[in-house]
């Protein structure tokens, strides 16, 4: 099966390099997306540009692909469910949640000029990054890309209620399924509260399992495609 892979803020398609061979061994073709403004050489991309790139990747895939989003890009993966609910097999979200209707895509950090650079590892100290070696952290930071403000402050809109019926797997790395259930029940994540085919899966890792647990992550994705 074709699997569209979308990494979160500051990352390009190479974030999935260690996951691709594991997916291939399981019979899948991984399609990593380098988002506009995050490694494609442009600096003026918008959220709508990134959403369009995800839909284009879905449309170019063979058959009905499976779509995987990581961190902030969980919103972009859910865009595929919103715009192509009958054209995808399902969605997996890794360590993140779709933005609530009318909210900003990922306005979490202050920009420097027209972009939001990687802020360093201090904001992610603890469970997010405890499983990453100093060498890995240095490598990821060195390969990071400032995200255009037009992306981070773009406003998210949902259009098709059919998205709620798309098979959805929430991969819980630095938080537990129990914590996720609490957040959903409290109303903090309305998109997941309305999902009718939601499954929660635990993964013993930090926030970036594509680097630290690529084989385990590929196995979870493979299992999700079989639902």
From TrEMBL:
Entry GO MF terms: catalytic activity
Domain (AB hydrolase-1): residue spans on this chain: 3-219
Pfam families, A to Z: Abhydrolase_6
Annotated protein name in UniProt: Pimeloyl-ACP methyl ester carboxylesterase
């Amino acid at each position: 099966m074709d699997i569209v892979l979308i990494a979160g803020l500051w990352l390009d398609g190479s974030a999935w390099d260690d996951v691709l061979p594991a997916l291939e061994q399981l019979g899948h073709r991984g399609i990593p997306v380098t988002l506009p403004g995050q490694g494609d050489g442009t600096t003026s991309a918008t959220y709508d540009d990134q959403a369009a790139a995800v839909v284009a990747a879905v449309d170019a895939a063979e058959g009905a692909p499976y779509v995987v989003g990581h961190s902030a890009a969980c919103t972009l993966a859910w865009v595929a469910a919103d715009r192509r609910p009958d054209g995808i097999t399902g969605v997996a979200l890794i360590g993140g949640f779709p933005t609530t209707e009318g909210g900003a895509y990922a306005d979490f950090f202050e920009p420097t000029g027209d972009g939001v650079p990687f802020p360093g590892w201090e904001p992610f100290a603890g469970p997010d990054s405890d499983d990453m070696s100093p060498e890995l952290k240095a490598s990821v930071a060195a390969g990071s890309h400032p995200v255009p403000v037009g992306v981070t402050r773009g406003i998210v809109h949902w259009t098709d209620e059919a998205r709620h019926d798309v098979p959805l797997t929430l991969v819980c790395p630095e938080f537990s399924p129990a914590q996720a259930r609490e957040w959903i029940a409290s109303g903090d994540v309305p998109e997941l509260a309305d999902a009718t085919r939601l499954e929660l899966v635990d993964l013993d890792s930090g926030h970036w399992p594509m680097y630290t647990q690529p084989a385990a992550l590929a196995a979870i994705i493979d299992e999700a495609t079989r639902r």
